[in-house]
Design brief:
With 429 residues, the chain is of the alpha/beta class. It has two domains: 3-52 and 364-420, Urease, subunit C, domain 1 (Roll), CATH 2.30.40; 54-357, TIM Barrel (Alpha-Beta Barrel), CATH 3.20.20. Helices cover 34% and strands 21% of the residues. Strands 6-7-8-9-10-11-12 form a seven-stranded parallel β-sheet. Strands 3-2-1-4 form a four-stranded mixed β-sheet, with no helix packed on it. Helix 12 (340-349) packs across helix 14 (381-387). It is globular and about 65 Å long. Bound molecules: fe (ii) ion. Fe (ii) ion is lined by residues 58, 60, 119, 211, 310.
């Protein structure tokens, strides 16, 4: 008789199939009908969704949970957020950054978010954020995969010491090359930064993830250079453009040329819907642009698109709970991905698609893969998007790391049921 450390029984996977999952050590040992198997711990997931963990490919862990310090962003714009962060990073200490980041990782784990790509600001001669997050990366390693991007927030060329400090951060062990071409002094400086940053990544064998064209200016076309350099340097499949909001405002004819070039270079896109819908269009009166990039259009060309969270309680965004379902829910609405297969895709974008963009090779619900999963109080992936429900159980690398009791509302209505869970099977696609 088969024996496991943990057995998760009867759960419905995002593709709708029902399978038991047997876990031995930190591996998924078996999947299927495991009736009769023994286990040290049995998690009954009958009727619940069992998903691979949530993955966030775009976050700022050095700034998270700092909202209101030293003041709030009164205009709500990206540029005031950058200025505010400039004030905050002068007074922040390594210890305080570590404390905030670890508190955020607790939130993430409780939400079944077990892999995060965080940008870390390299425009600081003391590299306090880099020191803090390299430490945090090691502390959380047993339960959360933290991938760090060297991010010259004030401009790789525009800030006088950013270039040297970004290279130093990479020498210290930061994983991915970042940048912000639209924030350089000129379009040509932006293009030059894309070129050099891609060359650095090619030389060092690293991935690239640039904040790219996070502006409403339709002439911000650094994504074109990013696709070109990706192809020139043989970096296909290793490069992502985050935000790409200018594409929202670009001329349709130009986009019809751009998207095949992105597809050819296998450049991934990481829109951040909670933030893009909040920060973009702030200079517009009416009609007011949404600012989210062209998600469905890119997908129709085979371009990989993942939803990122970007911010939680920081100079740019006052809300957030580390829930990637909130991110997908907003993205679904703003990109109008309302058909059943599009909603299903939105769930994949915060799980499998993001894992692919981050090159998480040990990810997924399959025998032999790392035993990480989340049990949600929902009957399907689409229902999870609608309910954004409690995470009943989170397993990371073979360990139960978070559990939450089912929390049905209790009704006191004459002639009606005494509790309600807001599940609804009929409407499922
Ligand atoms: Fe960002």
């Amino acid at each position: 008789m088969a024996s496991f450390d943990i057995l998760v029984t009867g759960g419905t996977q995002p593709d709708g199939t029902v399978k038991d999952i047997g876990i031995a050590g930190d591996r998924i040992a078996a999947m299927g009908d495991l009736t009769g198997a023994e286990a040290g711990t049995v998690i009954d997931a009958t009727g619940d969704l069992v998903s691979p963990p949530f993955v966030d490919p775009h976050f700022h862990m050095d700034a998270t949970l700092s909202y209101g310090t030293p003041r709030i962003n009164a205009s709500g714009t990206l540029l005031e957020g950058i200025a505010l962060w400039g004030e905050l990073k002068q007074i922040a200490t390594v210890e305080e950054m570590v404390e905030r980041a670890l508190a955020y990782c607790d939130w993430a784990v409780s939400m079944g978010l077990l892999a995060v790509r965080s940008h870390v600001d390299t425009c600081d001669d003391d590299l306090k954020g880099v020191e803090a997050l390299l430490h945090v990366r090691e502390v959380v390693k047993p339960y959360l995969d933290l991938q760090l991007v060297a991010f010259p927030q004030d401009g790789f060329y525009r800030d006088p010491t950013a270039r040297a400090n970004t290279l130093r951060a990479l020498d210290m062990g930061v994983d991915v090359v970042g940048g912000i071409p639209h924030f350089e002094r000129t379009m040509s400086d932006g293009a030059a930064s894309v070129r050099e940053l891609c060359e650095i990544a090619a030389e060092r064998g690293l991935l690239v993830d640039l904040h790219c064209d996070e502006t409403d200016d339709p002439l911000s076309r650094h994504i074109e250079t990013l696709a070109y350099e990706t192809q020139r340097l043989g970096l296909q499949g290793r490069v992502a453009g985050s935000h790409l909001t200018s594409m929202h405002s670009m001329d349709n004819y130009y986009v019809s040329k751009l998207l095949p070039l992105m597809a050819e270079a296998q450049v991934a896109a990481i829109p951040n819907p909670l933030i893009n819908i909040t920060l973009q269009g702030r200079h517009d009166t009416y009609p007011k642009r949404r600012g989210l990039t062209r998600v469905k259009e890119m997908q129709s060309y085979g371009i990989s698109v993942g939803w990122g969270q970007d911010c939680v309680r920081d100079p740019w965004y006052s809300l957030g709970t580390a829930d990637m379902l909130d991110v997908a829910f907003m993205g679904l609405h703003v990109a109008q991905m309302t058909a059943p297969e599009e909603m299903q895709r939105c769930f994949q974008m915060v799980t499998e698609e993001n894992a692919k963009i981050m090159h998480l090779d040990d990810y997924g619900l399959a025998p032999g893969k790392q035993a990480s999963l989340v049990v949600l109080d929902a009957g399907s992936a689409i229902e999870a998007l609608r309910l954004r429900p409690d995470r009943l159980c989170v397993i990371s690398k073979g360990q139960v790391v978070s559990q939450q009791a089912r929390n049905d509302a209790r009704l006191t209505l004459p002639g009606r049921p005494d509790s309600v869970r807001r599940r609804h099977k009929i409407a499922e696609g």
